[in-house]
Amino acid sequence: MPTVANLLAIMPFPDIDPIAFSIGPVAIHWYGLAYVAGIMLGWYYARLIAGNDALWPGNVSPISKPQLDDFIVWVALGIVLGGRIGYILFYDMPAVIESPIRAIQIWNGGMSFHGGLTGTTIAMIIFARRNGIPLWNLFDIVSAVVPIGLFCGRIANFINGELWGRLTDVPWAFVFPNGGPFARHPSQLYEAGLEGIVLLLVLTILIFAFRALKTPGLVTGVFVCGYALSRIFVEFFREPDAQLGYLLGTNWLTMGMVLSSPMVLLGLWAIVRARSRAALQS
Questions:
Q1: Distance of alpha carbon 39 from alpha carbon 79, whole angstroms
Q2: Does the pLDDT value for residue 7 go beyond 70?
Q3: pLDDT tens across 25-70, in order?
Q4: By CB neighbour count within 10 A (0-12 exposed, 13-18 middle, 19+ buried), where does 68 fall?
Q5: Residue 282: DSSP 8-state
Q6: At residue 8, does pLDDT exceed 60?
Q7: C-beta atoms surrounding 216 within 10 Å
């Protein structure tokens, strides 16, 4: 067990202002910039994938670049609205009821990935049907780029000094400004590494080395399963949200684990479905 002396003696949190810059009375937060960067970088990468016919079934891309340009508005709305509504419903409803203005303060509490995923999924279904795009192909291209946004978002969480980890005495621990005087796991960086960098590399290798996009649904399944396993793992190092704490009277079960567990099964189902359909068509 770490001693109190050890917990007090590790790295101080870097002095980073959560506000990147201000334009008159308007403060531009790093959190908002992270979402803009994630969406724009993801859009650029998606255009590269969509423009490479050799990656797709029949060597024909299922979505044109102009369609992808239109879709960015849909996906941005799905991420922001779904992510914020999800956070309120899953994590912050009592506080929002008490102070409704809190609902639009995305830097105060943040966004829920699971809510953002739901909002984006709804946006994808509607957009695919309206534009005649095969749904699983659209799922795949979005899944391929989501880790970029996850990386940017978790870095913003770290800059904000929020969603910090549990107490620890590991050498790379930080004393977060809002986390008391004790050193904690930088769980935001763990998530940025696993959900962002590692998952992006895995999906990129599958797409370009193994032509995974030729099997509709495979990239989606690997992403969903990979994210869920990464999130469940990091939850063992992450401090649960103060307003919820641990669930069911345990000292380990968190809301993040509960929301991510069904995703493992959903991802495995998508992988099996994709491979089964590919086998039938071969």
A1: 9
A2: no
A3: 888 888 889 988 998 999 999 999 999 999 999 999 999 999 999 9
A4: buried
A5: -
A6: no
A7: 23
Residue 15: CA count within 13 A, CB half-sphere? 0
The tokens describing 59, both together, are 């060597």
Token pair listed for 69: 């340009």
What is the pTM for the complete model shown? 0.89
pLDDT interval class at 179 (50, 70, 90): confident
pLDDT digits (tens, 9 = 90+) for 189-207: 999 999 999 999 999 999 9
C-alpha separations of 18 from 15, 21, 156, 184, 194 in Å: 9, 9, 8, 19, 23
Please work out, in degrees rounded to the nearest 5, the angle formed at the alpha carbon of residue 82 by the alpha carbons of 80 and 83: 65
Report the alpha-carbon distance of residue 171 to residue 174 in Å, rounded: 9
Q: Alpha-carbon distance 162 to 147, whole Å?
A: 20
Please, which residues have CB within 8 angstroms of residue 106's CB and are 6 or more apart in sequence? Answer: 31, 32, 80, 84
Helix locations, the chain, DSSP H? 4-8, 30-50, 65-87, 93-98, 113-131, 135-160, 187-191, 199-208, 218-235, 255-281
Q: Look at residue 238 and give its three-state secondary structure.
A: strand
Q: Which of 38, 33, 30 is nearest to 149 (CA)?
A: 38
Q: Find residue 11's DSSP bridge partners.
A: 174
Alpha-carbon torsion angle 91, 196, 149, 111, nearest 10: 10
| SS3 state of residue 198 | helix
- Alpha-carbon distance of 123 to 143, in angstroms, equals 14
Is residue 144 within 8 A of residue 45, CB to CB? The reply is yes
**pLDDT given for residue 116 in this prediction:** 87
